[in-house]
Amino acid sequence: MSYEALLRRIKEDVEAIVPEDIEITGVEFEGPVVVIQTRNMDEFVYDTNLVRKLAQGLKRRVAIRPHSSLVKDVNEASAIIKEIIPIEARITDVAFNHDSNEVTIEALSPGLAIGKHGSNLNEIKKRTGWAPLVVRTPPIESKSVKDIRQYLKDPEITERRKNFLKKVGRRIFRDIPDGENWVRNTSLGGYREVGRSCHMLTTRNSKILIDIGVNVGSQDHPSPYLQMSEVQPFESIDAIVVTHAHLDHSGLVPLMYKYGYDGPIYCTAPTRDMMALLQLDYIKVAAAEGKRPPYESKHVQDEILHTIPIKYNETTDIAPDIRLTLHNAGHILGSASPHFHIGDGLYNIAYSGDIKFERTWLFNSATNKFPRLETLVMESTYGGRKDFQPTRKEAAAQLKSVLKRTLGNGGKVLIPVFAVGRSQEVMIVLEKQMKNGQIPKAPIYLDGMIWEATAIHTAYPEFLNNQLRTQIFQRNENPFLSDFFNKVDSREMRENILHDSEPCVVLATSGMLNGGPVMEYLKYWGSDPKNTLVFVGYQAEGTLGRKIQKGMQELIVSEKGRPMAISLKAVAETVDGFSGHSDRKQLINYISTMDPKPDRIIIHHGDELKEMDIASSLHRKYGMTTMMPMNLETYRLR
């Protein structure tokens, strides 16, 4: 069926579902969403089930918008909105989009702004004609979130995005010829290795890229095999799906726009914001090291413009024969395991992304329940026979012991961390232990990109675990807003901390001691035996962090471009159990409790021996087919 014929049928279905007295003035696709314009917004306000009926009847996502003749003047509408929404909601911004007749309302308490069962939004629709969208104002101001929201409000960008969405809608719902159907997975990066993750899901009619990562530690093979004929030309790709923001999964997404890709990216909203932050930092670090970055900031902006955020468990069309659902992966903020439903029940495949199959201080456990599943592509970072980690409870107890001893003796605790994920986990534990008097009270300083990454977490508390959401929403206790935490926002402040004799805790990047502000603290505090250096994250082979873990005490670091010797006398401790990856036991449990169990598991994102260990164990235990392809291999799945 052609796009035009499909649109005519959709219009007929809409007219059949809505009552005759409701005037429909337009129906069109914007990306995967059916946008319905009407002169009778009141009817949709009064009949709250009508939108649900339309979505179920059309089997697509639906948005209702008022006809332009109904919308009031911006000043009048703004006054009405502020009259309807209670002052306790604390509105911080109201932005009107004339192209879509939508108004975006930022509020510190979005629940109060929305009202019970959406009552305030319905009242706004009825009295102003504008379709309201409420978003959360981050309690800690995030430059990334603010810049992205401002960028998307720009009238020129709004017009470009509207045209882009119409183009995507036309591509998704294009006519496809009859013929033999098949499904293939191509390994483009991250197979029998960790880093540069990239997969291509191909059917007879569609091509989807899942993740486009970079291996920042590799000089020889940092990028996926995007030059292969299966991938080229980039214009032939229907969509990119990003599982999460870490650079080994998202680092080269902007490169696609540099070389001709003009299609959509699907991910969660926090993944969009977080990956933009990390990519811009990647550009900055490359330039500082005298390297040529693979793309520019304008390509990150292109990425933002082309991103279509979707929520967990929200199913959406992304190609003529493929529907996508993102499920919680439990790894970092917004991380997802994408599930693809191909054809009319033809085939189902899921990609785990990086998963944590355990409830953590930040996130609920990764989802392993799917409607249907024939093949799973699963990570195996800690899939080796000896890869067992302490529980979160054991890790917290060990960290408490280290902090109690060091702070009690008047020393300083330096914790090298990655900005996203582990930093926030450690912050939750420190805040709880300090508040409950389990460790001595002392200032906790956050240096590097940690504060900005934490600010993004505060913008999306709905992605945190159930207990943390209850604590934030119902008890109004947000641990990230604790007075214990202090942002290091200047070189002068860092100098003051370095020379302060009082005990304190510093979380600083980078997590493997391969640069960043953490090195300044190591230079000043590393020679004092009262102090403690605490590793809470993975230390890759060859990094300074790994060398210290192996016992190295005579260190050579850089000081203003010159080598500087440090005799490390501070105690070096490793506290395992904070990892965002599942260990071997959790990976086995992830499969053993999966419903339904897949017929086939493709192993990736692990060293070769670890992939082999987990693949053979799963095959013996469950009798399912397990595969561990090399990069550049393609398997036909159906």
Strand content: 15-25%
Which runs of at least 5 residues are low in confidence (pLDDT < 50)? none
Number of helices: 21
Question: CATH topology of the largest domain, anyone?
Answer: Metallo-beta-lactamase, Chain A
Measured as a percent range, the helix fraction is 25-40%
Number of strands: 28
Count of discrete domains: 4
Q: Please state the CA-atom Rg, rounded to the nearest Å.
A: 26 Å
For the record, the CATH class of the largest domain is Alpha Beta
What is the approximate shape? globular
Distance between the termini: 24 Å
Largest sheet composition: 7 strands, mixed
Structural class: alpha/beta
Describe it for me?
Strands 12-11-10-9-8-7-28 form a seven-stranded mixed beta sheet. It has 21 helices and 28 strands. Strand 4 (91-97) and strand 5 form a beta hairpin. It is globular. The chain is 34% helix and 22% strand. The protein folds into four domains: 3-69, 2-Layer Sandwich (GMP Synthetase, Chain A, domain 3), CATH 3.30.300.230; 72-147, GMP Synthetase, Chain A, domain 3 (2-Layer Sandwich); 182-386 and 581-636, Ribonuclease Z/Hydroxyacylglutathione hydrolase-like (Metallo-beta-lactamase, Chain A); 392-574, Rossmann fold. It has 638 residues and is of the alpha/beta class.
Show the helix and strand layout:
Blueprint: H1 3-17, E1 24-30, E2 33-38, H2 41-46, H3 50-58, E3 61-66, H4 74-84, E4 91-97, E5 102-107, H5 110-114, H6 119-128, E6 131-136, H7 143-153, H8 155-172, E7 183-189, E8 198-203, E9 207-212, E10 239-241, H9 247-250, H10 253-258, E11 265-267, H11 269-288, H12 297-305, E12 307-309, E13 316-319, E14 322-328, E15 336-342, E16 347-351, E17 375-379, H13 392-408, E18 412-416, H14 422-435, E19 444-447, H15 450-459, H16 466-473, E20 485-487, H17 491-499, E21 504-508, H18 518-525, E22 532-535, H19 544-549, E23 554-559, E24 562-567, E25 571-574, H20 584-592, E26 600-604, H21 608-622, E27 625-627, E28 634-636
Parallel strand pairs: 2-3, 5-6, 9-10, 10-11, 11-12, 16-17, 17-26, 18-21, 18-22, 19-20, 19-21, 22-25, 26-27
Antiparallel strand pairs: 1-2, 4-5, 7-8, 7-28, 8-9, 13-14, 14-15, 15-16, 23-24
Helix pairs in contact: 1-3, 4-6, 11-12, 11-15
